Structure formats: C-alpha cells, structure tokens
Amino acid sequence: RAAAALARRSHRRVVGVAVRRAAVPRSGRVLLGGQRPASSAASAGGGDDAARGVGTYTTVGFALDIDGCVWRGGDLIPGSRHAVATLMERDVPFVFLTNGGGRLEKEAAATLASKLDLDISAEHVVLSHTPMHSLVHEHGEQLVLVSGKARATDVLASYGFKRMVTTAQLHSQYPWLWPDRAPAPIPERELARLEDANLLVTPSNPIGAVFGIMDPDDWARDMQLLVDVCRSKGCPDVREGAMGPGSSEAQSVPLYMSCPDLEYMAEAKLPRLGAGSFGMALAHLFESSVGSPLRCTWFGKPRQTTYAHALKLLEAQATAFGFDGLRSVYGVGDNPVADVRGANNAGEPWESVLVRTGVFVGDGNDAVDPGDHVFDTLGDAVKALAP
Fold this sequence. Notes:
Elements: H1 2-10, E1 30-31, H2 40-44, H3 47-51, E2 57-64, E3 71-72, E4 75-76, H4 80-89, E5 94-97, H5 105-116, E6 125-126, H6 136-139, E7 143-148, H7 152-159, E8 163-166, H8 167-173, H9 191-195, E9 209-213, H10 219-231, E10 255-258, E11 263-264, E12 272-273, H11 275-290, E13 296-299, H12 304-320, E14 325-333, H13 336-346, E15 350-355, E16 373-375, H14 378-385
Parallel strand pairs: 2-5, 2-14, 5-6, 7-8, 7-9, 9-10, 10-13, 14-15, 15-16
Antiparallel strand pairs: 1-2, 3-4, 11-12
C-alpha cells in the first residue's frame, strides 16, 4: 500500500499538462548517443555540442502486454505489480499495449488500477481497437455494421461514430438471412434503434463499412451476415450486384477487425482460440463462397498502426516528464507472433522483449520471431532495462 501511494504521488498524468517540467539531469537520464552529462556546461547544449545532439535528454519507454505478461487468467504474475510501480516511481513512460478489447479504454484502465492497486488512467491503455478512432473521418457519418461483444457500439460511439447497427439488429430486420435460429432478443436500451429509419438497412440506406470489435458471441450468425454484407453492395437482402462464384466484382464494403490473435493464454493449460481465429475462419468461408479473397484491415498487434499510436502516447508522456525524446521503446510480451513480431517490424526506437510467462515458455529464444531481449518475467525485464 505504501508503495502504491508513492507511485500515485510520483506519477504525473500527461493529459492536460500545460507546463513542462525542467529537464534536470539525474541517473535515469542520458544524452543522445548514450552519453551522460559531465557538467552543467554540457547539459546546456550550446555550440557544436547542440549540433551533435549533446545536451538533449532522452529516456526509454515501455509498452506492456497484459494477458500472459502482467497477469494470467486474472491472477497477477509474481513481480508484475512491482514492475509497473517501478516505472511509475521513476517517471518512465509506459502504456499497456494489449490485443484485448470489447470495452472502453477507461474501463480497462479501471480494471488494471483495481488489480494492481495503482493509479492507471485511460491514457495508459491501448486496446486492439483503439486506433480505429482514426477511421471516423471516413466512416463516422455512414451506417456501419458492428460485430463483436455486447459493448461494441459503445466503443465505436466513444470514437465518434454516429450510425451503427449490430448484427443482432440486422438479423431482427431480416430474420431469413440466418434461418437456423430465431433472432436474439434485443436489449431494452437498443429497442428504439429498431424503429429508427436512419438505422434500417435498405438499398437506399446501405451499410458503408463493417467493424469487428473482437469476436462475436454467435460465430455462425455473424459469419453468414458478414459474408452477405461484404459480397453485396451494403444491403444483404438484395441479390442484384452481389458477388458470386467467379464474380469479377470487387468487394465494395470495407471490413475492419480488431485483435488478430490466433491464440491467447488464460486459466487453461493450452492456449485458447483468440478473436483472430474468427477472422481467419470468415476469410476462408468468404473465399470459398465468393471465389475471391476477403479484404480486411486488421487493428492490433502486430499491425503497425497500433505501434504508431502507442508511440505517440509514449512520446507525449516523455515530453510531460521533461525529456526530449525516446531512445528506446521496449515492447514486452509473451506472444512471439503478436508482441515480438510487432515490435521487430515497428522499426526504431522499438526493441522487442519476450517473457516466458504465457504463450512462450521455452528455453532460449523463439526460432521464428526472436526477441531482442528475453527474460523470465516482466519484473526481470524492468529491472534490467528501466533507467
């Protein structure tokens, strides 16, 4: 508790910070190129020294995976809380970079804060679908179909999307599209949407894009509806213009999905199928039915849009803490395919850190996606790499 209180006092929330703290040299700060300031004259950074970058204070940042790195199956991995508290105490920029999602960033932050007993804000959380907010300028006013968890429309609404219809609502409007089962009851808070003509899918009010916020609860229904919408012109109850076997038509409705993970670790001894497995199955069924590949834009690790967004948040924290840049950003995780591959492909200043507390449990390094650094736990990684 005392450590948590110290962490809360030490860590400064970066959003809304208007005054930059003076860049006073200390043990955790080094100059560009790894040099430490030898004198106050050097830290002033004048003349030729300034031209070479001497006198510019840099730090490192951390992007931490959650499942299999901070906790596993909801239980904290030993040393992970102390590792996060250490970063906070030392003003080391960090974010939680996870392929989880299906809820608001502030809700994920509240869960982290409760489990870690630390002051974690939404600005420290990047979920798999967080970078989707960049699509508002393109699809924010269009009618979009939403597949995924119960809170999927709340997620997109928080990003600024205005006209959304869920797969359950589409099934209620056109029950014959999935005749094997009666439409699921619509939650009371969404009943009014069924009466809103602006949200009814028709040839004159077609779906402009499809968003997958994690995988849905009803795979079979959503696979059928997503195939229908993506092969049509946005109204799946109209045959004219729909793509068929051997069709030369291009897919006209874009598809965006979050969390490309095939597997993740939970309480079970073996990995569980992740949200990415739904997208893989959907792509196979679409191509088998239509005859052409499904075009899908993925968000989440290892996609580079996710790393670019995380880097912006870390740079903002570094600036608020009085640093002039990040010399390294350590992407820490247990999944070589997602965490390590993503950091390896992100380029400078990213460095990949593989830990043995989740998907990867072997000796040495991963043969296909090797990490730049390998440690047993997150705690070991922070102890070795944090300034």
